[in-house]
Specification:
This protein is an alpha/beta fold. It is about 45% helix and about 15% strand. The chain has 13 helices and eight strands. The chain has an eight-stranded mixed β-sheet with strand order 1-2-4-3-5-6-7-8, sandwiched between helices.
Length: about 290
């Protein structure tokens, strides 16, 4: 584990591999780079002569918490671009799933100079999918702050890992002005309100159409309530150089990952299966 300071934030990361075209892998939710499947996918890619960055986004793992920005995903996207520049990686293949796909899209769109290519899967979408994650990410902290103040926010289970692994994060939460924090949580929730002309929260469709880099989009399962199939198909239509591909698992993969047995393995445990199609696409599109 290494730490970098990016715009005043301490960011935890690891680089796997020593040379070759750089890649970065971003998980979803508030999960860490250390969740099962993340490093394993990175290792599969690095074994073919690439260099792969795995990192803890602000508000995850060992990195600092941060409550700046138009949205949490935008703040994390800017942090990723800053980390890539700090490490001197140059144009990087930006890959991620679920919340990581949104961060990857925003990173590439907002920082075109550091994006060599884009690979995404499990892209959140649909009215239910977007509104439910807005509530998931911000409602608990909002209601805790509203009723009981910032100490109650710091005591929430969702902040347990960032505080345990980076104890200074507790004080960072306690130092937040309650009124400003409430406004931030509402602003972050509002970003997920479905709106015409913005398939991906925070990314206008016109900006997606202008993202002229090689892209690979894995089609979401028809059974997936949170990452709608039509969202994956629509983003593949918007991105001018996108390829839409079938994922290396069955239609019910997302649902299957939430069974009691699969939860023990981890949400991303089967992500290493993505390595062969990712590498085949990269060898053709980024040659």
């Amino acid at each position: 584990m290494a730490l970098a300071t990016v715009d005043g934030l301490s960011i935890s990361y690891d680089l796997i591999g020593t040379a070759g075209r750089p890649w970065v892998i971003t998980p979803g939710g508030r999960y860490s780079k250390d969740d099962p499947g993340i490093r394993e996918l990175a290792a599969e890619i690095a074994a073919t002569g690439r260099r792969v960055l795995v990192w803890d986004r602000p508000n995850t793992g060992e990195s600092d918490v941060c409550f700046d920005g138009e949205s949490e995903s935008q703040m994390q996207a800017d942090a990723l671009a800053g980390l890539i520049r700090h490490l001197g990686l140059g144009p990087t293949v930006i890959a991620g799933g679920s919340g990581g796909s949104r961060v990857s899209l925003l990173t590439a769109a907002r920082h075109r100079d550091i994006a060599a290519g884009l690979a995404i899967w499990w892209l959140s979408g649909g009215v239910y999918g977007l509104m439910s994650i807005g509530v998931h990410y911000a409602a608990g902290s909002f209601t805790a702050a509203w009723h009981h103040g910032m100490e109650a926010v710091a005591d929430l289970p969702e902040w347990e890992e960032p505080i345990t692994r980076n104890p200074a994060n507790r004080q960072r939460i306690l130092d937040q002005d309650r009124r400003e924090f409430l406004a931030t949580m509402e602003r972050w929730m509002a970003v997920y309100s479905p709106r015409d002309g913005e398939l991906v929260p925070g990314l206008p469709d016109d900006d997606a159409r202008g993202l002229d880099i090689p892209a690979l989009v894995f089609r979401s399962g028809e059974s997936d309530l949170h990452h709608r199939r039509e969202t994956s198909e629509h983003i593949a239509q918007l991105l001018p150089r996108a390829v839409l591909a079938e994922p290396p698992w069955g239609d019910t993969e997302w649902n299957d990952r939430h069974t009691p047995e699969a939860r023990k393995e981890g949400l991303f445990a089967r992500w290493p299966l993505l390595a062969p199609p990712l590498l085949a696409w990269a060898d053709e599109a980024l040659a």
